[in-house]
Amino acid sequence: MQSTPAVEVVGLVKRYGGKTAVDGLDLTVPRGTVTAVLGPNGAGKTTTVETCEGYRRPDGGSVRVLGLDPVTEGGALRPRIGVMLQNGGVYPGARAEEMLRHTAKLHRDPLDPAMLVERLGLGTCGRTPYRRLSGGQQQRLALAMAVVGRPELVFLDEPTAGLDPQARRATWDLVSELRADGVTAVLTTHFMDEAEHLADHVVIVDGGRAIASGTPTELCRGGAEGTLRFTGRPGLDLMSLLNALPADSAALEPTPGSYRIEGKVDPQLLATVTSWCAQHGVMPDRIAVERRTLEDVFLELTGKELRG
Ligand code: ATP
Q1: Are residues 261 and 143 in the same domain?
Q2: ABC transporter domain: which residues (predicted)?
Q3: How far apart are CA 129 and CA 152, in angstroms?
Q4: Over the stretch 56-81, which tens digit does the pLDDT of each residue have?
């Protein structure tokens, strides 16, 4: 039983009237991992996650969460999962800490609400009604409510959108600790650094489909593998340099005296460039190797910046 993935979505289709929001999406989340679902606005991330949570019925394909059907077996599934929605789902008049304590009591082996209040910096607003909390406080409370029941699996939709750096860091630390405790997490995010920092596995979604997936390292390894930059005197003979490089490389001078080599950046390429410089009496002022980031991969695959 434990060997089944925490989430297994195959060929999911979801339409709103005539609009296809999710169009044959596959998603597998192994147990005990953090999976980040990345995608531009309108890619279908929230719809997918809400379908996994049992809030939406698929129009096609299949969804299993902890081995269960979220719609027909929702009653058995819900106590085992935690859900952090983008917009609360909380009584506006209820007080923050009271609500958290109440939620904790609904579970057999909850986390300590006082610990969560302290960890997420909610101590000063424990008695404040929900509607009077700031956006960031409401968000941190939603995270606390999602995890207080010590769920096996937690869905976090944009958990740090709009948070200040300190609250963001506290959220990241909490997610990392939950993972160390064996909790599986699925998070949607617009932040590449969040995915790079937290996720074991990243799925890039665009136009309602998963267009790439893998560990952040695997995703960054494909395609143009890196960039080598150096600065030197302007107007170097790039054709001569290119002839010395492997066939799939590119050599550019985007601004005078600033050079960029693209391709499989490995020790051999570095040696070739420095030896070419030595042969041509070029002393680079600065030489740097840059790996591709998830941001680069995302842009290459979708042609879009994350915030549309
Ligand atoms: P964002 O990053 O902006 O939250 P998303 O990737 O989560 O976007 P979804 O919210 O799943 O994307 O939306 C996918 C598509 O479905 C969008 O074009 C959106 O406008 C549309 N959509 C979402 N919810 C509804 C709805 N209730 N009725 C009609 N269309 C909807």
Answers
A1: no
A2: 7-232
A3: 29
A4: 999 999 999 999 999 999 999 999 99
Which structural domain, as residue segments, surrounds residue 244? 223-291
- Around ligand 1, the residues with Cβ closer than 6 Å are 16, 19, 21, 39, 41-47
**What is the position in ligand 1's atom list of the atom closest to the CA of 46?**
7
Whether residue 189 is found in the same domain as residue 265: no
Tens digit of each residue's pLDDT (9 = 90 or more) over 174-230: 999 999 999 999 999 888 889 989 999 999 999 999 999 999 888 877 555 678 999
- Same domain for 261 and 203: no
CA 76 to chain centre: 28
Same domain, 151 and 185: yes
Strand order in the sheet with 60-65: 19-29, 7-16, 60-65
The Å distance, Cα 42 to ligand 1 centre, comes to 5
Total number of residues shown for the chain: 308
Distance, in Å, from the CA atom of 112 to the CA atom of 4, rounded to the nearest integer, reads: 30
Decide if pLDDT at 308 tops 60.
Answer: no
Domain presence at residue 306 = no
